[in-house]
Specification:
This protein is α/β, with parallel strands linked by helices. The chain is 39% helix and 18% strand. The protein has a seven-stranded mixed β-sheet with strand order 4-3-2-5-6-9-7, with helices on both faces. Strand 2, helix 3 and strand 3 form a beta-alpha-beta unit. Helix 6 packs parallel to helix 8, helix 9 crosses helix 12 and helix 11 runs antiparallel to helix 12. The longest helix is centred in the C-terminal third of the chain and has 15 residues. Bound molecules: S-adenosylmethionine (SAM).
């Protein structure tokens, strides 16, 4: 059995051996607690038939735990200085492929097709670089067909916003965008002390599981998100006022919005933060005939 990478001593040894220094701008906070890693991996549905995508393997602390359980692990790492380190630390694990790529620029569809042709289920497990948490999550949610689950560490504050329910301060367009696609649950709060260097904020592990065809009534997903984002333009304003400012200009705009509120049976005096996803769907469907931009 190999020694875990994720202990303070072994991590320091590896960093020293390779002369590695952290780049704050890349969100480099490495985990040094094997119990936290066991816990993260235990929340992911991984068997030898599962393909795992990791974002930001760092020196491989989480990667080795994933490699022991999964059929195959593909890890995106942006920092070229970590490639020789990973070559060293991952040498016992033949089922790990490291891609030297910015995950936000990667063609996920192509990577999945090429790397996971033999795998049906794909799971994303990562201790995310916190400066790009939301764009990474949204990118994987859009990859609808294959990514069934994400178990990801992020700032606790972002996890709270994602899991928030209507009529709470944290509820907003991010809660709706993620909960539209996934069931979301915080599985663990993680203190700063288990990272080198320590981040400024508390962290949480979030478990996102794909909802299968949860909202079949949606007329147009893109338009639904235009409406939800527009509804939170100014949190203190009513949804009516926000939509007056955010929807495209046109003849009889006020009257048409009024009509849509009536059809959707939504009180225009409410604020966006009080509407549930099914209520937003009703409203967006009612606004759609008047305000969507035809696709070319
Ligand atoms: C929070 S660290 C996690 C490291 C390791 N997985 C761990 O848990 O100890 C984030 C990692 O993401 C990498 N990273 C940052 N931005 C990235 C991007 N756009 N694409 C891919 N990797 C990125 C960093 O270089 C770093 O290795």
């Amino acid at each position: 059995m190999y020694k875990d990478i994720a202990t303070p001593m072994r991590t320091k040894e590896i960093l020293q051996k390779h002369g590695f220094s952290f780049k704050k701008s890349l969100g480099q906070n490495f985990l040094v607690d094997p119990n936290v890693l066991h816990n993260i991996v235990s929340h992911a549905a991984i068997t030898k038939n599962t393909g795992v995508i990791e974002v930001g393997p760092g020196i491989g602390a989480l990667t080795e735990h994933l490699a022991r359980q999964a059929g195959k692990v593909v890890a995106f790492e942006i920092d070229g200085r970590l490639l020789p380190v990973l070559e060293d630390t991952m040498s016992p694990y033949l089922n790990v492929t490291v891609l030297h790529q910015d995950v936000l620029k990667a063609d996920l569809h192509q990577v999945i097709e090429e790397q996971f042709a033999d795998y049906e289920d794909i799971v994303v497990v990562a201790n995310l670089p916190y400066y790009i948490t939301t764009p990474i999550i949204m990118k994987f949610l859009m990859e609808k067909a294959r990514v069934k689950q994400l178990v990801i560490m992020m700032q606790k504050e972002v996890a709270d916003r994602i899991t928030a329910v209507p009529s709470t301060k944290a509820y907003g367009s991010l809660s709706i965008a993620v909960q539209y696609y996934m069931d979301a649950e915080v599985s663990m709060i993680v203190p700063k002390t288990v990272f080198i260097p320590q981040p400024n904020v508390e962290s949480a592990v979030l478990c996102l599981t794909r909802k299968e065809n949860a909202y079949p009534d949606v007329v147009d997903e893109e338009f639904l998100f235009i409406v939800t984002q527009g509804s939170f333009l100014h949190r203190r304003k009513t949804i009516w006022n926000n939509l007056q400012s955010s929807l495209p200009e046109g003849k009889e705009k006020k009257e048409l919005i009024q009509k849509a509120f009536e059809v959707a049976e939504v009180d225009p005096g409410r604020r966006g933060e009080t509407l549930s996803i099914p209520e937003f769907i009703k409203l967006a469907n009612a606004l759609y005939p008047y305000f969507h931009t035809p696709k070319s």
